[in-house]
Amino acid sequence: MTDGEMAIGVDIGGTKVFGVMVDGAGEIVSAAKLTTPRSFRTGDPQVLLETVLEVVDVLSARVPVQPAPPVGIGVPGLVDRAGRLRFSPHLPEAEGLEFGNLLLRTLANRSVVVENDANCAARAELEFGSLQGVADGLMVTLGTGIGGALISGGRLLTGASGFAGEVGHMVVDPSGPPCPCGGRGCWERYASGGGLGRLAREAAAAGRLTAVVEDVGGDPENVHGEDVTNAARSGDSEALAVLAELGWWLALGLANLTAVLDPRRCVVGGGLAEAGALLLDPARKAFDELVEGGRARPGMELVAAGLGERAGAVGAALVARDGRQ
Amino acid sequence: MTDGEMAIGVDIGGTKVFGVMVDGAGEIVSAAKLTTPRSFRTGDPQVLLETVLEVVDVLSARVPVQPAPPVGIGVPGLVDRAGRLRFSPHLPEAEGLEFGNLLLRTLANRSVVVENDANCAARAELEFGSLQGVADGLMVTLGTGIGGALISGGRLLTGASGFAGEVGHMVVDPSGPPCPCGGRGCWERYASGGGLGRLAREAAAAGRLTAVVEDVGGDPENVHGEDVTNAARSGDSEALAVLAELGWWLALGLANLTAVLDPRRCVVGGGLAEAGALLLDPARKAFDELVEGGRARPGMELVAAGLGERAGAVGAALVARDGRQ
């Protein structure tokens, strides 16, 4: 392998900026993680760009290669084909940012490509993970919200403006809770990490999740999603029941997407996928009951992402090396 | 044009079987419509096949061409690639029917192709109607239920098993009314011809639609969707309000599909599309408010089908001539 096959990918999230340098085989040669700066959250997007550049600098210093590797950036939300973030419910301070142009000014000797984070994750899963060899597939990333990417003919389906795959903002209950996107009852209010927190606090307020509530000091409002997944791993039946409820909502959206797209396989990534079988087993069971014409369908495989949470950054590097689809 | 470019298309609906013979330019040379036999509705699918054959015979006798033109059949529901109807909420008596094989036995000298009815309609709209030149698009047919077809790269997107496009069975309210598919709160319970009937009877029972209720004899349960569209055409403000409500639900599902697929244009066909601007104007307005990141998107064109209700039969003929995609 040559230096020319190296690429850097950076996955920008609401809480952390995670970057990797990958070699020609997609192996991670080096990784760096920085906290998304707090001042960014109060309205200074320039700080975010500096954090991204810092991650790129760290990786470049650790693994000096010539020519300087291309850089791919994954961001949550609507990213247009010019690399501008047009809309981002979970990164609103960065809306309108021309990531591509701004980064190119500093990284003038490199190519810079910006892409939706879930599309990046799907690229990595297609090449090295659970979407290998899948012609008709789907990827959902369960984090603060839900990201999505559609696979048709073994390639990303991007839509007219590159905005396809915003599956988290399917409305599944028009009178449901408000969503940061401005809508109501979006799927991600129920089946994401944020959704788990909400379901958990509702359960706690209703007198369930007794052991978890005790562990966090007695206030149901202090219960977070990870408290539930931790308790479920230890066999807490009330926590398992909340994960089963989350699985039902996950299955509902996947059943909707299956009616529309008829995928053979759906890959679940993002932080919440770490719950593994505790989430996917009840989701599979509910899916078979919820999907239209279930008994007439050949079955849809629901599996965890092969690259776990690294998929977004690895995929961003692949996009940098091979271009957007 | 030669006889060899002629093709027959038959669109099977719950109430009528409509067939056309089209020439090489897609023009309808002859058309025939028969009522879907009542005995079929009580469990004798053979009668349905005979009705289809009768339509084919009538068209063939009127326009005798050699060699015998190929025959395409459009049916509502999940049609597999072998031409078998695997699942059909609105034609349950015909489930499991191997249309393709059964018709081939009688039409032994012709090729016979069976395809989902909305996919047929989209094929016709792509070639001669409102989807011409559209790379990323969507077709929805509003009849008893809602059919759908997805366009990507100017071609039908069919999914892993040929079942893609069952957009009517996206759940938009898990506690909504039961659907013939076995689910609850499917989009078609709100935004189809059947959905209009339900919205209308609810409005009538709540004391609205006073003139319409009077016209049908005073019983709110006797109000049908077409009573509302007729009254709306005459300017009845209460009927217009019900169509606006229907338009809101239509927009909700289209907003979901736009989040997922990012189409440039959506074509609305089926019987309900005859309501035209009375339905599409309020739907456009609601869509702009409902779709995620509306102000960041370049706009999605919502237009009526160019071929109206004939699209399904014409498209079935095109599928017969050119094959499934």
Describe this structure in words.
The structure is a homodimer of 325-residue chains. Chain A has 325 residues and is of the alpha/beta class. Helices cover 38% and strands 19% of the residues of chain A. Chain A is built from 11 helices and 12 strands. Chain A has helices spanning 38-41, 45-62, 99-106, 117-128, 188-191, 193-205, 210-215, 225-233, 237-261, 277-290, 311-322; strands at residues 7-12, 16-22, 28-35, 71-75, 78-79, 85-87, 112-116, 137-142, 146-152, 155-157, 265-269, 301-304. Chain A has a 5-stranded mixed β-sheet with strand order 3-2-1-4-7. The first copy, chain A, is globular and about 60 Å long. Chain A starts with 6 loop residues before the first strand and ends with a helix. At the A-B interface, β9 and α9 of A face β9 and α9 of B.
Low-confidence stretches of chain A: none
Computed over alpha carbons, the radius of gyration of chain A is: 20 Å
Which secondary-structure class do the elements of chain A indicate? alpha/beta
Largest interface comes to: A-B, 50 and 50 residues
Oligomer: homodimer
Query: What letter string, H or E per element, gives the SSE order of chain A?
Result: EEEHHEEEHEHEEEHHHHHEHEH
Please state roughly what percent of the residues of chain A sit in beta strands, choosing from under 5%, 5-15%, 15-25%, 25-35%, 35-45% or over 45%.
Answer: 15-25%
How many strands appear in the DSSP assignment of chain A?
12
Mean pLDDT of chain A: 93
Largest sheet of chain A, in brief, is: 5 strands, mixed
Span from first to last CA of chain A? 24 Å
* Contiguous helical run count of chain A: 11
Name the helicity range of chain A.
25-40%
Strand sequence of the main sheet of chain A, in spatial order?
A: 3-2-1-4-7
Q: Which term fits the overall shape of chain A?
A: globular
